[in-house]
Amino acid sequence: MSRWENFCVVGIGGHARTKLLPGIAENGQKVVGLVSRQPSDTLPDGPIYPTVEAALPHLPPGTAILISSPPASHYIQAKAALSAGFDVFVEKPAFVSVDEAQDLATLCATNGTVLVEAFMQRYTALYSLLLEHIANNPPVVIDISFLIPAQPQGTFRNAEDLSASSLYDIGCYILALLDDIGINPAVFDIADVRDAGTMTEALELFGHSGTTVLRASIGVDAEYVNRVRVVGVEGDSTTFEPLFYGRPGTKMIGDRQIEDCNGFAAMLAVPREHWLANQPERLTSMIAVTKALGSLALQLAEFRLESRP
């Protein structure tokens, strides 16, 4: 088997409609099932099921399950699919507790299924060039900013649960990047929180790795910012933007433009054999990032508690 040709998409919100489904279509792959509690005429052709469990008996062998539901739902849905022998892509953050991540990593090792945390930026040229730059130019500062103008209304992000917060939705990208460059994602602590527990919450993270200073700003701010600035030992500074981004288009390395691919399509076209070969390393990374998110969530809960009148 090479790449998957059939997908069942679970959770048909804006992310699936504008990024995942177009990525599948760009590759010439097929949607053979949809899991949604809100059927719509705008969905692609294919059977619609109310739950993952209802869909699984009707899917062709070799179908990959692509989970794009709210994070709190991921574990139950992924476990059902993996237990039935299906391979699974699960949107980031994959899981909201390290126990969930470890449980499903063990399940995959037992039954030979594939589990992919769908960090699409890892399959873009800009992300690869950033990793190459850092490997060849040891940084003294890595400054990361991922800020959005507003949280979308009427989605899981409006819930008070920490799994719906910017820490999980955005912070997971930053922690995965640290792991990809060989830095323990647990190095970060929360230095400050603005508007804790509100729809305009923003976090400042700070840490050290050896002689490298690490800073990150995530959450809601006046303007959209999606970049990583790397400062070298000679004081040289290079910015990569937008980094945590999967759509095709023009991106920047300093003043230089590059044309990048569709990271979603590139990710979904990777052969199954590749995912299976590097799964131990990927799942170890997933567990480390999930554990770091859990530690930061405890800190964020304290900030939120202290901010209450």
Which regions contain 5 or more consecutive residues with pLDDT less than 50? none
The average pLDDT value, as a whole number, equals 94
Number of separate helices = 10
Shape: globular
Description:
- With 309 residues, the chain is of the alpha/beta class.
- The protein is 36% helix and 27% strand.
- The strands form two sheets. The chain has an eight-stranded mixed sheet with strand order 8-9-10-7-11-12-13-14.
Summarize it.
The protein is of the alpha/beta class and 309 residues long.
Spell out the key features of this protein.
single chain, 309 residues, alpha/beta, eight-stranded mixed β-sheet, 10 helices, 36% helix, 27% strand, globular
Write the layout of secondary structure elements.
Elements: E1 6-10, H1 14-26, E2 30-35, E3 48-49, H2 52-55, E4 64-67, H3 71-83, E5 87-91, H4 98-111, E6 115-118, H5 125-136, E7 139-148, H6 166-169, H7 171-180, E8 189-194, E9 202-209, E10 212-220, E11 225-232, E12 237-241, E13 249-253, E14 256-260, H8 263-268, H9 272-277, H10 279-307
Parallel strand pairs: 1-2, 1-4, 2-3, 4-5, 5-6, 7-10
Antiparallel strand pairs: 7-11, 8-9, 9-10, 11-12, 12-13, 13-14
Helix pairs in contact: 3-4, 4-10, 7-10
